Amino acid sequence: MYAEIMAEGKHGRRAFLSAAAAAGAGITQFSAARASETTNACTRTDDSGSNAGWGEVDSLAGTDSETTTTEAPASESTSLDVSIAELDVSLDTSVIDSGVEGPTAFVVGGVHGDEEAGYRAADQILDWTPDAGRLVVLPRANPTAIAQNTRTTDAGDLNRHFLVDDGPTTPLAQALWDIVEQVEPDAVLSLHESQGIYGSEPSGVGQAIFHSHGARDAAQMGINRANRTIRKRRIMFERGLITSPSIAPSGLFTEKTAYEADIPSFIIETYEELPLDARIRWQKMITKGVLDYLDLYN
């Protein structure tokens, strides 16, 4: 299945990333150690309404065994210490290499510092080892916002700084894009949360996975993994498109990976009024389903 979703445009993507890296600005130091398609994801603002008091989630089927993997003897884990001198912060990124030829998936959490399930799920994904290819994990892409438990920082919303056909507009955004250029992923997954449920509130995108064109089946596999643990229809996961950059909001990280670099891309959104442990589990289940589809796991 990996070959089917990745083959088209892969050569062009590699050429684009190689050219971008060759021309790169070099501000980042690396060291090893259901709505219409005119609704975009990540529309939440700091003052949008919430759905407190939604009620209890039915007990979940399954356990974290959904995401348990067996370490291959030849696997290797290395770290990229991505330092941003202007901000005095580092983006701790892990590269887990199975030792077997296969695709590279890049999982990013913590773009917004108040979306806890995303970065906590990514923290746990650090313990996974793929059966093939490489798993690159950046659990906490916005360390300052996470420390402050805020969506934004003084530099604004990190997920509005990735304009297509233009350079990232802040040092932190540039550092994140530099990682994309270095690891050359075949798929990108960005883990988020929302204050509303997709299709229930105008700005709600929770309980949904948004995908780039051509990546629907991979997204659906992830949804199927999560929805079989949910009994309430209203909180089952839906699927939507990462829409064109011409549709607000623009500047999303996954817009740039999908539309400029031609990388199959996914945004996973949970509804933050539901229990944290359930949200983390769903983030992991959906991620694992997508990675299974892409053949990182047998």
Describe this structure in words.
By secondary structure, this protein is an alpha/beta fold. The longest helix has 18 residues. The protein has an eight-stranded mixed β-sheet with strand order 1-2-4-3-5-8-6-7, with helices on both faces. The N and C termini lie close together (11 Å). The protein is globular, with a radius of gyration of 18 Å. β3, α3 and β4 form a beta-alpha-beta unit. It has eight helices and eight strands. About 19% of the residues have low confidence. The protein has a single domain, classed as 3-Layer(aba) Sandwich (Aminopeptidase).
When the domains are counted, the total is: 1
CATH class value? Alpha Beta
Q: From N to C, what is the helix and strand string?
A: HHEEEHEHHEEHEHEH
- Mean pLDDT value: 83
Biased composition (Low complexity): 59-79
Biased composition (Polar residues): 36-51
GO molecular function: hydrolase activity; metal ion binding
Keywords: Hydrolase, Metal-binding, Zinc
What features would you highlight for this structure?
about 300 residues; Succinylglutamate desuccinylase/aspartoacylase family protein; 8 helices; hydrolase activity; about 30% helix; Aminopeptidase; 8-stranded mixed sheet; hydrolase; metal-binding; about 15% strand; single chain; AstE_AspA_cat; alpha/beta
